[in-house]
Structures are given as C-alpha cells and as structure tokens.
Amino acid sequence: MKRTRGFLRVAGLAAAVATTVSAGLVSASTAVAAPQAPGTVVRDVDLPAPARLAAASGQRQLTYWTEGATGEPALSTGSVYVPPGQAPAGGWPIVSFAHGTAGVGDDCAPSFVGDTPLTQTFLTTLLNAGYAVVATDYVGLGTDGVHAYLHGRSEGAAVIDMVRAATSVDPDLSRRWMAVGHSQGGHATMFAAHAATRYAPELDFRGASATGTPANLELALLIGGPGFPNVGLNGLTAFAAFIIDGLRIARPDLPIDDYLTPAGAELVRESETTCYLPLVSRASEVGVGVGEMLSRPLAEPRIHDALNDYLAVPTSGYDRPLFLGHGLPDQTVPFPLGAKLAADLLVGGQDVTARAYPGEHRVSFTQATPDVLAFVRAHL
C-alpha cells in the first residue's frame, strides 16, 4: 500500500579561500590524463578548514569522476565526514547529502568554503546519530568547467558517485546508503533516487528524503518572457540566471542568447562566477528582473522541451521509499510546486511520505529534521 502523510546557501569568500579553491582546481584538473570510471578518486586530501565539522572524527575532500551535463565524464569534488567512535559491523551507513543553492562560481563550493550554519547543524545531527556523511559539490563547483545548476541527471549522478568515491577510499564505510537533500539538493536527491539502483547496482540504496524541492519549474517557466512581473519570490532573478546559464551548458546546440536582452545576457554571464546572495544583490542593484532578462517567451517549443528535459523531476520509476517535506509559506520554492510533485508521485504509484511544515524555505529545513532523521533510521 502506497502512503502519504500530512536553503539556501550564504556565500562569501576571503581572498585566501579563493586562492585555496584555485589551487584545488589546478590539482583536480591536471592530476589525470584521461577520464576514468564513475566514482574513481583522483585526489584525496584533508578537508579545508572552513568545511570541517567538530563532530567528525575523520574528514577529507575527494575529487572524483562522475557525469557532466552533456553526458560526458567530468570531475566533481566533495566532502567525507566520519562519525566518532568505532565503526559498527559492516561499516558506517552513509547519508549522501545534496546541498542547497550556493551559486555557480568555484568560490561557492561547500567542500572548500563550508556550507550554511543550518546545513552544518543538520550534518552534525546525522554524524551524532551514527551516520557517515558524504556531500558532493556537483560538477563544476570546485572543478574545471561551469556548474549546470539544476541539471537533474548530472547532479543526481554526482550524489551517487560520491558514495562510490567515499567507499573506495575508506574501508570503514558501508555500501548501505540513502540520499538526503534540501532545495537544489532536494532536486538532485530526487534524480539520484530515480537512478540509484540502475546506475550503481553494487551499492545498497535504501531510499531518499527531499525537502524544499524545486519541482515543476519547467511548468512555471512557461510564463517566462518579456514583461514578466515581479511576483515576490525570493531570489527569482538569480535562479533564472543560473538555470539559463546551465541550459547553455547542457544544450550548446540551442541559441539561448537569442532569448536574452543585453541586460539578461550580462547577468547570465555574471552568474558563472558569482555566488547566490551576491547575484541577488547584483540583480537588485541593476534593476533586472525576469521580465527584463528575456527578449522572447520561454514557452517556445524548442526551449520549453529543452527545459523539461533539463529540469523535470521524474514522477514514476522509483524503487525505494521517498520522504518529501515542504514549508507552507515558502517564498523561495512555493508550496504548490512541492505539493504537485507529491500528488504526481502518488498518482504514479510511488512509495512516498509527504509532510508540510509551518516555516518558510530555510526554517522548514530545520523543522523537518526530526522527520527526516526518523525516516533515515527506519530505512538505513
């Protein structure tokens, strides 16, 4: 019987940290001469100080092979956190955490600069509960190339291959794992959950929890075009710039620039090297909203079809349990988008538990933590 039940990243860097990121990029991009199998580790170093967690007994940064936005092999970086104490029989079970929106620039990569205090608290909760945590940066954040923001398949692959990478270098880690993510990470988690048992059958995938998931954006973008009004959603222009830039990466055959005004093209270019909050500030400073970014409607078939392939969260084909959470007053990813996802999954016969919370986007992440932890405990 199927069932249902009733974060954004703050980024900003000092020059010293930016230098560390640059050094990491050089090492990651020059360490290997040719692509290797997904999950293959090419660099294993101590985790940079800003990304460390006091609760972890061991923590390292891995650079590993995974899949890019056009399906080609690509490198990603990520963090590995091991709980204190002796590993249980069979090794530490793993939570592969997918982070929320940080931005697209390399200076935004969590394994170099750390994640938000909310996320750090959540990861600490997982460690204290006896789970190892692995956390991908996604392709292009901390490695060569540009991160294709919200490109579902590549983000999902990075979440899965992070588990492969971590288990290949730490014998105290189990192959038993779950995927957990919030916001952008909720989107990545859903794609990881959809592919996990086919993509990495040698691992023991148990299920996924996704909160604040930006689902159904391909439908929302149907109304995007010149004159689109300010609808009061937090960071909407920055998100649109990140998505459009990502679509350029995933679909170089499409004339994406033809759909942008000069101001929109400039903001999209800036998005490639800018973290989320600075880009929000920049869009406000120059007075550019979604309506000022676009010169033509995104509903034109070739663009909408491409966005659908790029963004659309699958609503059937999952073979492990799912937990969804969403804040009712969410002004970053509106609740109706998440509610439609839950309803579509149920209609598709999926094993999904869905809950609503009274807080907005970031607050709902914290409010959902007890339910997420209970779900992980029940299945992992």
Automatic annotation (TrEMBL):
Residues 1-33 form the signal peptide. Pfam families: LIP (PF03583). Keywords: Signal. Gene3D superfamilies: alpha/beta hydrolase. InterPro entries: AB_hydrolase_fold, Lipase_secreted, TAT_signal. Coiled coil: none annotated. This is Lipase family protein. It comes from Rhodococcus gannanensis.
